[in-house]
Design brief:
Elements lengths: L21 E6 L2 E6 L4 H7 L25 E2 L18 E3 L3 H16 L15 H8 L17 E2 L2 E2 L13 E3 L9 H10 L4 E4 L6 E4 L16 H5 L5 E3 H6 L4 E6 L8 E7 L2 E7 L12 H5 L14 E2 L8 E2 L2 H19 L4 E5 L5 H15 L4 E3 H16 L17 E5 L3 H4 L1 H12 L3 E5 L16 E3 L6 H14 L5 H7 L2 H11 L6 H8 L3 H13 L3 E5 L1 H4 L4 H14 L9 E4 L6 H6 L6 E2 L3 E2 L3 H11 L11 H9 L5 E5 L3 H4 L3 H9 L3 E6 L11 E4 L8 E4 L4 E5 L11 H11 L9 H11 L8 H7 L1 E3 L43 E6 L24 E4 L1 H6 L7 E6 L3 E8 L7 E5 L27 E7 L5 H13 L8
Parallel strand pairs: 1-4, 16-17, 16-25, 18-19, 18-21, 19-20, 21-22, 25-26, 26-27, 31-35, 32-34
Antiparallel strand pairs: 1-2, 3-4, 5-6, 7-10, 8-9, 11-12, 12-13, 14-15, 14-27, 23-24, 28-29, 29-30, 31-36, 32-35, 33-34, 33-36
Helix pairs in contact: 8-25, 9-25, 9-26, 10-19, 13-16, 13-17, 13-19, 16-17, 22-24
Amino acid sequence: MKDFIIPDDRDLGTPASHSDITVTLTVDGIPVAVPAGTSVMRAAAIAGITVPKLCATDHLTAFGSCRLCVVQIDGMRGTPASCTTPVAEGMIVHTQTDEVAQIRRGVMELYISDHPLDCLTCAANGDCELQDMAGAVGLREVRYETGKNHFQRRENGETNPEWRAKDHSNPYFTFDPAKCIVCSRCVRACEEVQGTFALTIDGRGFDSRVSAGLASDSFLSSDCVSCGACVQVCPTATLIENKVIEVGTPERVVKTTCAYCGVGCSFDAHMRGETVVKMVPSKDGKANRGHSCVKGRFAWGYATHAERILNPMIREDYRDPWRVVSWEEAIRFAADRLRATQERHGRDSVGVITSSRCTNEETYLVQKLARAVFGNNNTDTCARVCHSPTGYGLKTAFGTSAGTHDFDSVEETDLALVIGANPTEGHPVFGSRLRRRLREGAGLIVIDPRHIDLLDTAHRNDAIHLPLLPGTNVAVLTAMAHVIAAEGLYDEAFICERCDWDEFLEYRDFLLDPRHSPEEVERQSNVPADLIRQAARAYAAAPRASIYYGLGVTEHSQGSTTVMAIANLAMMTGNIGKPGTGVNPLRGQNNVQGSCDMGSFPHEFPGYRHVTDIETRKLYEQVWGVPLSDEPGLRIPNMFDAATQGRFKGLYCQGEDVLQSDPDTSHVQSALASLDILIVHDLFLNETSNYAHVFLPGSSFLEKDGTFTNAERRINMVRKAMTPKNGYADWEITVMLANALDAGWDYSHPSEIMDEIALTTPSFAGVSYDLLDREQSVQWPCNAKAPLGTPVMHIEGFVRGKGKFINTEYVPSEERTGGRFPLLLTTGRTLTQYNVGAQTRRTDNTVWHPEDVLEIHPHDAEQRGIREGDYVRVASRAGDTTIRAKITERVAPGVVYTTFHHPNTQANVVTTDNSDWATNCPEFKVTAVQVSPSNGPSEWQEQYRSHSELSRRILPAAE
């Protein structure tokens, strides 16, 4: 496919107005009609007339400081700034008069007099707005003599006291204060777009400087989160990406989608040949609206990292060294072993694990491989390991297994209830959008064992934090519903119209049982009863309230029940089916939603249709040309159990590192070591590959075409920016393996796979690459009823008909604290690392998070004689590991917390095999542990490290 180049990506100077009133004016004799509230500058740009500017950009609200954009307006005195002057009916604007031209040249001359004129060697040459504007206003000379300025290092042999050195502290960009024109764009972007408030203007007048915190701070030591918004809006080379300095200006642009979290940010990959120069968030990206985080904007270097494996490898036994072979030999070896395994142990002895990091098309093919080639339904995915309770709970309550609203909806919410999620760390671009809404006055309720950054949002209303004990989500949410029911705060009209009233009355009777009162629940959850009442009243009173949740909801033994409790709250208050409301799961990986949609579960075909459904099975049998099994297959934990029992012997694992990401690591080790054939298809030798017999090198998102589906059901295009370094895109590799097993697949491009998905999956019926190229993205369901997709679901009625209320009985986890294990461990993510860290650990993001640490409350640390930075042993009923301690009051006494991004920690060696009652989703968030001082790595860690080094030996290539 051709590179997708945005046809019109002009910066129109100021943001668009959303007024329904149209105003007509004339600019340089050209009539133009624009919404009321539009700036004169933007109106001129729409008319095709460019007004010079430096401080203005349509990413930010108008500021009016540079004075370069002055115009003359009939009937108005002086020369107002066009960026801050709104249009008016009948206004006549002149942008090119002699007076205006003289003012602009004078202003520009002042800027240039205080700027180093090193344009030929400047990294921004060819992409510098200051340079462009000097030409636009016709500046040809500077009359001012050299004197005191901000860029000369020496004056008369002495160091200039005003001069400041470049700041190279950030690994991704450089700050050169000598080139700063103090337009304040960076400061405003940090405030308006990111919401971090890390930058400020220090000093006044000629002494004004951009400052990242205190005078002693650098960009690295400041509160800067390296989102890159400041770099993107800088009009000079003051803030510039190091890759641009190193490589030069790009020559082409390819539009694609970020391969990190479930926000699904659109990016423009700026390329020079086969080299990525920079990733710029797309201004028209419907999920991110021109913003990004440190991972998406900067952490793409893993695609060319030296540790990436580019050639297939095989070995007879996982204890042998790897042998590099051709693609033909690797595929033949894998196919022969799979065939032999099925002949020896039966059709059901092999299976697949699909990836939430791969495209929809690739995931679809892997589950098809299991069903149509292996002849069984043994297909599962990490999406079930993290979000299957979302699918079960929402499908039961609403009739569909996905979030209800788009991200734009947050801009209309009056209150956000965030439970079991940390958006500013795990979903930072959405977190920034939510922060902006909070600064505008929306209320906030956070239900989480930790104090998360969102609670510290600048200019927020007083937030309500319910610091519950891990595992008590259901009890707290049911207590909130109890208050709403007891005080009559529910929306009776909505319930009568959209739900079954008699069913609600039964649910209300259930809620009013005294055991669900806040006072009773306080004993179980440690959340004060008055806080529960306060939160319930606030949620019910908000005109438009939305719920956002994450893995802190789903990864529990009652994950599905918690999702149902969330759905109950939304329905009983009428907060569903209109902007600013809804039930919105925040997906952890880029294609968790798509992995579920594509039929990765052992009991469901694509589109969430059960394998026992005769009509669905007939459809696939007709399209695929083979008979299909109606017997649900094995989930991942069932595969592991069967492997240790000798019944499951072969696994094709694409893009997943189950040894690091799944619970009870020792059990996973035993299972993988029991397999006759383990095929790992990935970018790097990961922890799972320690036990593999075949390694098939994968391709990065920069090297493939396809689609991802984000948390808001948005289907985004992924476009190839560079040639696959391993020779093949991932979908091609799966096709080769299938055809080696006599499948006879003949796809020539991922668009053909999407056509098959559309043919067989009702919610994707209208989706095609042509549609996605034209519309940028669409949200499923996309079909004849909704040809351009569905941003908000359940507007007039639920998919299932009437919304269903479900009694949410609180059942405590089997994992309990006691004398041996008195603390509760819960886990989460950090901003700069991603999932198991395979990608981000191979970038400069390790500057911020070089290792996992254990957060522990000062009281618990003092009791155990633990100091900041000490090694501590974390032991549970399942195992133990060693990690450094971080003493903090972010966690409550009795609770400890860690991340799981680094394999040398292997946090999951201590997590148990407890899981959600309905979906088998592991209970990562509740583990009883003891923490004690340690001298260093545990015995298990030492043994694991030794085996890992042994298993990654690669024989020299044959001459």
